[in-house]
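Why does residue order matter? Because the sequence determines the fold. Keep that principle in mind as you read this record.
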Amino acid sequence: MDDEIKYEEIIIQHEDNNNNIDTSYINTTNDTNNDDFIRKSHIIESILFTMGDSVELSTLALALNCDKNEAKKLCEFLKEKYTKEHFGMKIIRLENKYQMVSSDEYFDNLVIVAANPKKPILTDAVIETLAIIAYKQPITKSEIEKIRGVSSEHTVSRLLEYKLIEEAGRLDAPGRPITFKTNENFLRRFGIASIDDLPILSSERESEIQSEVQEEIKSSLGEAVLIDDNSNDISKNTDNKDNNGDITNAKNIEI
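Structure:
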């Protein structure tokens, strides 16, 4: 990741009939022309607002006829500006993309005039599967099942349906199994800019999780064996009853 970009904040006041009608925050680095910087930042605002979805940094650079470093400076400047001014919109970074979205604090007001967005309900099993994919991506379904100790067909299908993961490709192995990875919606849902921002698990915590998984597997296997033994006992009792019945019937016939 690039070093954090710091900006000095100044205010340019435009007067019309002795009244202040506009203020703009601009970058004051020596190698940047202020008027050109403001114009380019306005272009980015227009692009992000019009597109709605996230836009690649390379695409913004192409539109501005500049390199990606300058485009990133402009995006980060706007991101900081929108945050400081508490605008109704905000700009977020999603890996190497930027997007203009509505501010979280106005969600309750938005749903009054818009359809109430339905967020998928993530069960413990789905969250567990998603966490495995996030930390181990790209990963196949069989590898997920090996970690969880149970079938993950349903949870992976749910995550695909919720558009929190996507196919990453195919593994160069027999059967060429599909691998999965998290996507942009995952970053947006959990409020992070990159998978690099995921919390780092300590080796101790990872060992604890593996132990917990193993205990769950043992517990599940133990219950399965118990059920199987009970089934065998029932089967034996039934066979004995049937045999006794046959003997009785045979005696009755002889009499």
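The radius of gyration is 30 Å.
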